Amino acid sequence: MTAFHAEIIGTMILILLGNGVVCNVVLDKTKGNEGGWLLINFAWGLAVFAAVVVAGPYSGAHLNPAVTLGLAAAGKFAWSSVLPYLLAQAIGAAIACVLLVLMYRDHYLATGSKDAKLATFCTAPEIRSWFPNVVSEMLGTFILVIGALFIIGPEVNIASDPDAVIGLGSVGALPIALFVTVIGMGLGGTTGYAINPVRDFIPRVMHGILPIGDKRDGDWSYAWIPIVGPILGAIQAAGLYLMLI
Fold first, then answer.
1. Model confidence at 171, in pLDDT bands (50, 70, 90)?
2. DSSP the chain
3. CATH number, domain containing residue 79
4. Hey, which end of the chain has fewer CB within 10 Å, N or C?
């Protein structure tokens, strides 16, 4: 599997499971209706784990333009590969939205709240104020990218076999999943912690395209914040990393 295809599949899994739990919690007549904020937090963390397990060995499982840009700014990723990764992430997110609408179609039609329908695609602030909203997305992404930059694998030297590869296997996906979980719990209460431009922007576009019954506009006056905030946070994380290292 190529890195491009891995990013598509990984991002599709991320959005399918992450937005899927939002569908389960906020749409009417689901088993998980009104399951609450903690269910969403834990499920998003586990969605990251699942996506990284699948895509990690092939692409590094960025799954997020902010992570891709942050790693490139820190010298950990080639700038020439940034645009292909961003395209792959966008494709994966779009596919996930289509699959979720196919699965939850009857529940979309049964749901009267237009805001609830939009929430299954993208984020929105609890108190609409652009500066603290940007800071929220910036801080959450800063922690995420710092985590990605400072997570280290096991270091084992085997004198008899210097070419031996030692790793944690799929368990290596756990640290970044825990980062996402605690970011949601600690920093997600204001804006819903998009911390990922493609996780918010592409589903917001798909909300306007896909047939989910009666729906509202895509709240486009807010849409720039989950793009600008995460990018600022990622660049700041890369800058701090370079200063410390």
1. low
2. --HHHHHHHHHHHHHHHHHHHHHHHHSTT-TTTT--HHHHHHHHHHHHHHHHHHHHHHH----SHHHHHHHHHTTSS-GGGHHHHHHHHHHHHHHHHHHHHHHHHHHHHH---HHHHHHTTS---SS--HHHHHHHHHHHHHHHHHHHHH--------TT-TT-----GGGGGHHHHHHHHHHHHHH-TTT-----HHHHHHHHHHHHHS--SS-----TTTTTHHHHHHHHHHHHHHHHHHHH-
3. 1.20.1080.10
4. C
